[in-house]
Design goal:
Pfam families: Cyanate_lyase, CYNS_N. There is one protein chain. The chain is built from six helices and two strands. The chain is an alpha+beta fold and 147 residues long. A two-stranded antiparallel sheet has the order 1-2. Strand 1 and strand 2 form a beta hairpin. It is globular.
């Protein structure tokens, strides 16, 4: 029986062998590259038809489609990340987290941005000072209830 981790390793292997990008894998099933990448890394579930299509396109065992459609247990290592790219996002939230909270609540009231009704994109943007990375997140505003 394949686990989420097993399927992630298979996806990485086939992606590397075929010289594919996450964008091309996502385009092949008609979904967002951020969401598909997250699902392939075990943090989200693909709709069953999309999971089966991805498994077929990558030449994965049929069981991989079942696993890609299973609801994940969203856990992660809580230690400070040591990968430089991941650490930068940890640092950004550490430095700007309270600022984001303050601005969201000033603009919308006492509440949060959903990470469920949510989408994100990552783009490379040309700049005379060197290329930049643009990360755009959009989440539904969820007001806290008072009772």
């Amino acid at each position: 029986m394949l686990s989420k981790k097993d399927v992630t390793e298979l996806v990485y292997e086939r992606k590397r062998q075929a010289g594919l990008s996450w964008a091309s894998i996502a385009d092949g099933i008609g979904m967002s590259e951020v969401f598909v990448t997250s699902a392939c890394l075990g943090m989200n579930a693909l709709p069953r038809d999309k999971a089966d299509l991805l498994a077929t396109q990558l030449g994965l065992p049929q069981e991989a489609g079942v696993v890609l459609a299973e609801y994940p247990t969203k856990t992660w290592n809580r230690d400070v990340p040591t990968d430089p790219c991941v650490y930068r996002f940890h640092e950004i939230v550490g430095v700007y987290g309270d600022t984001l909270k303050e601005l969201i609540q000033e603009k919308c009231g006492n509440g949060i941005m959903s990470a469920i009704d949510f989408d994100m994109r990552v783009e490379r943007v040309a700049s005379p000072k060197g290329d930049r990375i643009e990360v755009s997140m959009s989440g539904k505003y969820l007001a806290y209830n008072a009772w």
